[in-house]
Amino acid sequence: MAVMHDPFRSSFVALNFDLDNKTFFRTLATNGVGPGVLQKCGSKDIELKLGNRTMLKNVPTGSILHSLSLNSHAKFARSAGLFFQVIQKTPTTCKIRLPSGLIKEISNDSYGTLGSVSNFQHNLISIGKAGRNRWLGIRPSVRGIAMNPVDHPHGGRTNGGKHPVTPWGIPTKGKPTVLKKK
Q: Is the pTM of this model over 0.85?
């Protein structure tokens, strides 16, 4: 296993080698798992250590996991530093607490990876200046009311006074559809 940076993700990516199929594949890196660690994936007889992927019926209540896959692909807890927690288990289902705080009841046959997603300090990055956001492809977001009349239909006033429109004068919330009484 090797840990790599992916510019399109907030977390790191692990390059793994499948010993059975003799192929390389990528997964989300688990926090605390470094290069050279042997990771396992399976439905039974998997030891519970960081980075191993198993069914939720095999993990104890209170476990922290990431990359929850309900059917085929991982859908939940995939961003940097995120995880979900197993709260309650029944013979067929288990309740989990998602990173949003939502409690969801899912099948025990769903897969999850033990541990949290890597790069948990991603939210502490300071952009520093507006130019760095431009490098990332993010354009400035200036309110129309803060502009001059030549720049935006809302501009030139200290208070609103007009219906919200785009910079080209088209109503943002749709055109009026109610007819006035005669």
A: no
Q: Find the domain containing 66 and state its range.
A: 2-114
* Whole-angstrom distance, CA of residue 134 vs CA of residue 131: 5
Those residues whose C-beta lies under 8 Å from the C-beta of residue 178, and which sit 6 or more positions away, are none
- The total number of structural domains that make up the chain: 2
Integer angstrom CA distances of residue 147 from 54, 154, 165, 166, 168: 55, 8, 14, 13, 14
Say whether 88 sits in a helix, a strand or coil: strand
Give the pLDDT confidence of 65-76 residue by residue, as tens digits.
Answer: 999 998 878 889
What is the secondary structure of 20-59 as a DSSP string?
A: TTTEEEEEEPBTT--TT----EESSS----TT-EEEGGGS
Check whether residue 14 and residue 52 sit in a common domain.
yes
**Which 3 state secondary structure label does DSSP give 171?**
strand
Q: What is the pLDDT of residues 111-161, one digit of tens each?
A: 999 999 999 999 999 999 999 999 988 988 888 888 888 888 888 876 656
